[in-house]
Amino acid sequence: MTHHPVLTLLLSGCLTVAVQNAAGQGAIRGKVLNSRNEPATNASVLLLKCPDSLLIASLFCNHLGDFLFEKIDTGHYILLTSMAGRQQRYSPLFKLDSNRELLLETQVLEAAFTELKEVSVTAKKPFLEQEPYRLILNIAVIPSAASSTALQILERSPGVLVNRQSSSISLLGKEGVNILINGKPAYMPAAAIFQMLDGMNAGNIETIEIITTPSASMDAEGKAGYVNIVLKKNEFAGTNGSFYLTGGYSRGPLAQAGLNFNHRSGRLNFFGNLSWTIEKKPIDINTYVKVSNNGDVYETWNSMDRNEHTQTHSLRLGMDYQLAKRTVMGVLVTSTGRWYSQKEKTYADFYLNSAPDTLARSWNREKNYWVSYGINLNLQQQLGKGDQLNFNADYLRYKNDQPFHYYTRYLNPSGDLIYDESYRNGKLTPMNIWVLALDYLKKISAKLEMELGVKETIANFTNDLKFERLQPAGWEVDPELTSIYYLKEDYSMAYASFRLKASGKLTVKAGLRYEYTNSNLETKLVSNIVDRHYGRFFPVVQLNYRTDENHSFSLAYNSRIARPAFNDLAPFTYYMNRNSVLTGNPALQPTITHGLNASYSFKQYMVQLSFTKEINGIAAFQPSVDSVLNKVVSKAENLDDQYTLAASVSVPLRATSWWNMQYNLTGTWTQLNAVYQKNAVRQERAAFNVFSVQSFTLPKQISLEITGYYSSKIADGVRILKPLGKLDIGLRKKIGLRDNLNLSGTNLLNTMRIRVYSDFPEFNLVGNVERVFLWPAFALTWTHNFGKEKLHAYRNRLTGAEEEKGRVQY
Description:
The strands form seven sheets. The protein has a 22-stranded antiparallel barrel. The chain has a domain at 241-805: Maltoporin, Chain A (Beta Barrel). The protein has 810 residues and is mainly beta.
């Protein structure tokens, strides 16, 4: 199977040679000056195709005021040139012929002013504004914005890659981009965010900010950077929104639907979105475990034939009311749900010293229901120019109900029944989280900004575990596997962050976060199973030096805390067979991370080096062997420490105006240290992954995208994850101004197979697992926009509990 991922990359790039010279192309060169005949350094130049003013490319002028567009298709074009403090300028219509370089007349930008009672300067913003740590796209100046979506604008943004097949967005070659709406994280499932952006009219957007280096006040999960969509002010009344429908097949039916809307009338703004999914599919899991004890060798082969049914929903309804010119009060109600059920048949063969010993045949049923709801109260106060105060109060309620039913028949090697057994266990886990947060932004001077914030979180959950065996007299509780756990946790946080523009080329950002945590876990019978009280400082320092508009250097250090998910802390028991058990780990410690990052960027090309040290890193499903009982127990475990050195290169290529390519290569070296059954374990691994996207803009508003991915063997705690890869393809058709159709095929070569093994015979830790959770899939999506095109969308703000939501896993 390992040859398939390599084929994935070959197929994703094979079109490069086939159509390299498919269309005639040329170049466009020019110069921009100000009214004093001085070079207009960093002036924004947009190339617009006629007659529909479609944005083809954009760039900044260099320090001489020169610009050059290369590999442009033949056709008729105009230029839109702009610069802060200057009137924007449209060039006359011109024609670009094939295989030539066209030199345009010099564009002169005059000073912008309007005479009122006094003379005042009213600057028209350029399309692109480069600032330290972020690139700003002023969407309002694009003539075609009203007929585009937010996703289409992102597709044309420097350094951003949109993968419509996987519903993912990459920034400078790094996946896992966080999306912000008005500076606030849009905490929804990735697919729902993707659909929201594809249905959001770009006419509602004021600017898009591409943030490559997050500050200390931002969520620690933003490792790949942020894309911040700043919506226009509430200047229009009415209703708008979009909805989408998806149908597909992946060894079972899959369907999705979603709706988002906004209504504004006077001072009141009402908004919401709803998404729903349903999927049925089979899952294959095969395991092997080898255990030695006193000269005897026990081997277990286990095969699980499972059929899953999953249904999810996400609901978000909110209302904002403008109390005064500078004061907004809002309420936001959220709800999520996941209803999962499965039926499986398990075949387990047990061998003793290479000879068949016992056979087991099991019929199991599981349900796993997650339901949550939350309410947020928000008050936003503008205190002065650049000063803002935000207050949030949140309450979140989660409930998990997870019953299991097992029936197993044990047979001798000849297939005769030895005995059978029935047992069941249940896990009921309600969680409650309360959060109070206050954030303050102060613009001290033109060169110095300050952010301050405090937050208090109180959380508790009850984990009610019950295990029962079927006896002749009925179900009987097993007291050793039945208990009720109580977790109480509270932590206080405060941060301060400063941004200083030290010179025209150097910008410094520094921040410090302090957190103090109290955590206690107990049962009715045993107190203080876990009783922790600790406080830590987490500094962040970032330096950015820009020599000119094309070259930039940055250096950053940060320290963060990542608390274990509540689910991993909650004890549970899941039996794969009588010798293999999955469980939780209430003794998990939080992870402390220290990271150094250095990068150099030239235009859209980027090279990045990073070094990370993790203390008490959390590795999921780490196996532990009891050789006496011949049992393997898997659970999340803390590693002692882990060191990672990484280098990445991002290379965007443009073959023609209708064909764009992106190649991202990342190499890593990892050393992890752990203790396994009082024995020190060290693993060192080098790995790499390659990501490739080929994007084609075809006639009649059709686009094609081919994506390939390959990851080499990597370390996963004391386990090793074998190579895997993926090939996706998609075709998109725009119908009019309001509708889109997207046909996608994912994992076409069926290479997304999770294969993990452990090979430490000296520690009695030998085994492997192969899981197929993702089959090849095909889906068709229809998206429709409705309502007024110039209506501002809702204020999708940050609540005070986003970090806590991230600790609950479904």
